[in-house]
Amino acid sequence: MTTVGYILIAAALLTAGAVVAWNRWRIRRLLKRMDDMLGKAIDEGFTEEDYDESLLSAVEAKLARYLASSTVSARNLQAEKDKIKTLIADISHQTKTPLANVLLYAQLLSEQPLPQESRTCITALEGQAEKLRSLIEALVKTSRLESGVLALHPQPALLAPMLEDAVAQFVPKTAEKSITLTLVSSEGDGVFDPKWTAEAVCNLLDNAIKYTPAGGAVTVQTHCYELFCRIDVADTGFGIPEEEQAKVFQRFYRCPSNYQAQGVGIGLYLARQIAEGQGGYIKVFSKPGRGAKFSLYLPRS
Question: What is the tens place of the pLDDT at every residue in 253-277?
Answer without folding.
Answer: 666 655 455 656 678 888 898 998 8
